[in-house]
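tool_call: predict_structure(chain=1)
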Amino acid sequence: MPRIALVTYDPGTEPNRDRDLPLLIRALTDAGAEAAAVHWDDPGVDWSAFDLAVIRSTWDYSWRAAEFVAWAERTGKATRLANPAAVVRWNSDKRYLGDLAAAGVPVVPTRYLAPGDPAVLPDDHEFVVKPTFGAGARYAARYAPGERATALRQLARMHEEGLTAIVQPYVRGIDVGGERALQFFAGRLLHASRKRAVLSPGTAYDAQKVAHPDLEPWTPTPAELAVAGRALAAVPDTPELLYARVDLVDGDDGEPRVMELELVEPNLFLFLHPASLPEVATAMVAAAAG
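tool_result:
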């Protein structure tokens, strides 16, 4: 019986926000595995006791990125880690978008402002500021050109904390077509979902946001599948990916662009797609067997 760790965060006294965890544990048990939800930062865990550790919902890692990457490196030496530590290192820093763009993948135009860089912000269109290490729209905000002073205060706060900022145009296609999440498992399309805009005008960058508003099933178009395939093919060193989520929005030309490529701990939305559970469980058991 393979032993599989579903790696999550420590919610403390609050309920765990990962709605997929109990569903996955039940599906893995039905598939003949022994599965447990394990906190990534629990010092008492013997990771070598598991045949496979699957990073599922380590949703506090972006506050402790260096610590998390070091954990992934250690754990990847103790057991099979999905996705691998090298992928975690590359994908946890959103500067990977520059690598995708350099490889010819259509992405949302992105600039980076590290501490000490001149604070050059757009003055003729809406834009978004967010950190290169972030999840769940943490420290993300949308600004109109006239709100530059507020955006500069956000930049100053982020730079004080040592964070590098991403500056992107606000892609207005989100307001029409939403953001589509194409989810892959064991190299195959698993299912797709669509959500509406996360960032509302006037919402403070440090306010709590609803990460996946108005989530619904989605049937991806051929153009979306093609862009997602190009993004996955551009991951360095062609690693073996157990799971991947490609988040797409429509550019001004109506064509899909990569907003994010989620290879660390993407929400799979299995609660919305219960028919995908057996396929996910079967793939995890096969990965645990090596």
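agent: The mean pLDDT is 94. Proceeding to next step.
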